[in-house]
């Protein structure tokens, strides 16, 4: 059995879209957490810079791919094209202990 994995995403909005990005992520928390294969999906806000972090845990890559393919995710990703100051930084990791 493949172990679950963690994903950390750093999302850096343009200053004028800080609230838009915050609200868009807050609006999908419950729905994402209810998805099959989602073990954790937490939103954090940077204290030293205007950015957001997603701390996620997924059962496997297929569960994450299904999340990205969800109908409610595509509109947010489309808005990110104009809302973000730079591309989302994504780091996938495996827990060691």
From TrEMBL:
PROSITE patterns: ABM. Gene3D superfamilies: 3.30.70.100. The keyword Oxidoreductase applies. Signal peptide: none annotated. One of its GO terms (molecular function) is monooxygenase activity. The keyword GTP-binding does not apply. This is Quinol monooxygenase YgiN. Residues 5-93 form the ABM domain. It comes from the Bacteria. Keywords: Monooxygenase, Oxidoreductase.
């Amino acid at each position: 059995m493949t172990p679950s994995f963690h994903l950390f995403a750093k999302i850096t909005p343009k200053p004028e879209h800080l609230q838009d990005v915050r609200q868009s992520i807050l609006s999908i928390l419950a729905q994402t957490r209810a998805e099959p294969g989602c073990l954790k999906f937490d939103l954090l806000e940077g204290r030293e810079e205007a950015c957001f972090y997603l701390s996620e845990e997924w059962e496997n890559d297929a569960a994450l791919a299904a999340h990205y393919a969800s109908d409610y995710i595509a509109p947010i990703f489309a808005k990110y094209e104009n809302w973000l100051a730079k591309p989302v930084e994504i780091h996938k990791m495996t827990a060691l202990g």
